[in-house]
Amino acid sequence: MSNIQMLASTWKTCTNCDLYKCRRQVVFGAGGSRASLLVLATHPGREEDLQGTPHVGEAGQRVRTLLRELHIPKSLVWLDTLLACVTPENREPQRAELDACRPRLHELINLLDPDLILAMGKLTVTELTGRRESIAELRGTFFRAQIPGRYVDYSVPVLATYHPGQFLRNPDSSEFGNERKWTEDFSRALAIAKKLKEIRKNDER
Known about the structure:
Blueprint: H1 3-11, E1 30-31, E2 37-41, H2 46-51, H3 58-69, E3 77-81, H4 95-112, E4 116-120, H5 122-129, H6 135-138, E5 142-147, E6 154-161, H7 164-169, H8 173-204
Parallel strand pairs: 2-3, 2-4, 4-6
Antiparallel strand pairs: 1-3, 5-6
């Protein structure tokens, strides 16, 4: 059993906050165990809770579709969320819930050691970086996330972008530009991740 599988097994029975009362199952992330890019949203939705797989709802399918369109290998990307449990009526996560799930996320980041995190949505960006501006101001900008390590703290680059749910819920002309910007940010993050993964491979030879 890999370290990531062990982490998933440890958290699948989590009762650290009240969300365990309304979930069907913990939704752990999925992707390459040595992924260069961590794609992070806020929390699982109803479909994710039913299937036990991240990013399979409407917004998540937009992510998966873009990955297929760009012919991105699964080994390059890890898909996950700040919370591992669905929230009642898909509401925003509460502070106690975010605090309870943060150790899981930090341990995951330690195990993955990603080169870059693509943070989708204002709450995700704020939780990682502490920045509180609007997502319109934050998107397309790089920040740093301070991650507690096992021996020493370190930082990981974070690229802020929109959550696809934003323009899927509001399919009017005002959101069209946001979808285009999200696609640009995602493509940019993937290109950087591919380059950095190649550099790592060369350094390991």
